[in-house]
Amino acid sequence: MANLTAASRRSIAVKPRAAPPHFHAYATAYLVHRGRRFTVALTHVEHDTDLVEVVKRLLRTARRAGIRPSLLLLDRGFYSVEVIRYLQAARYPFIMPVICRGRRADDPRGPGGTRVFAAHHHQGWFRYNPTSASKRTATVQIGVHCRNWRGRRNRHGRQTLVYA
Length: 164
What we know:
Blueprint: H1 6-10, E1 25-33, E2 36-45, H2 51-64, E3 72-73, H3 81-89, E4 94-95, H4 115-118, E5 124-128, E6 140-148, E7 158-163
Parallel strand pairs: 3-4
Antiparallel strand pairs: 1-2, 5-6, 6-7
């Protein structure tokens, strides 16, 4: 299967395997101090759990341990308007990767949504207003960082990293 082309890979129908109807997931909060990592909070995450509640539980547990973070580094799974609005209201500075959504760069009308920032080939700071499905908005600073691939992963050219 590894040597199939992308076009033929899409046309293969894969039957779902027998799997249990449940799963377990957890979220962790850890402290980085002098280059060492210490886990300070752990919480169970169910399928329909609100991400804002997960962040609140982690921060509450860390606070009970006597830790008030000066900067939150979040996973891209937390990129949502609700989480951004909560962190801004609670005055927690944060950095998280932005999920690229919108029209692709090869669209005749040009890129749209957050793909505008991924299409940049120069770095800088920008302001963006993401909108949720419930039409709530937030204002966030977007940082674009560009670096050269230099043959890593057999790629050349520029790599654009986009963070909120």
